[in-house]
């Protein structure tokens, strides 16, 4: 995965959910957010 700041990661997750970029990509982003302890 490309290295992202926390803000970029959350923005990418929200964009992926909004535009339906695929379940695998959304799941990967969500796992990374949880690993970092963030709240989208």
Question: How would you explain this protein's 3D organization?
Answer:
The structure is a single chain. This protein is mainly α and 40 residues long. The chain has one domain. The chain contains two helices and no strands. The protein has helices at 6-19, 23-36. The longest helix is centred in the first third of the chain and has 14 residues, at 6-19.
Features:
single chain; 40 residues; mainly alpha; Sporulation histidine kinase inhibitor Sda; protein kinase inhibitor; Sda_sf
Summarize, please.
By secondary structure, the chain is mainly alpha-helical. The protein has 2 helices and no strands.
Task: List the SSEs and their pairings.
Blueprint: H1 6-19, H2 23-36
Helix pairs in contact: 1-2
Cα(first) to Cα(last) distance is: 18 Å
Number of strands: 0
Q: Average pLDDT, to the nearest integer?
A: 91
Determine the number of helices (DSSP H or I, runs of at least 4 residues). Answer: 2
Structural class: mainly alpha
Organism: Siminovitchia acidinfaciens
Keywords: Protein kinase inhibitor
Pfam families: Sda
Protein name: Sporulation histidine kinase inhibitor Sda
């Amino acid at each position: 995965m490309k290295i992202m700041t926390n803000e970029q990661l959350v923005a990418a997750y929200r964009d992926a959910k909004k535009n339906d970029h695929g379940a695998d990509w959304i799941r990967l982003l969500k796992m990374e957010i949880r690993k970092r302890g963030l709240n989208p």
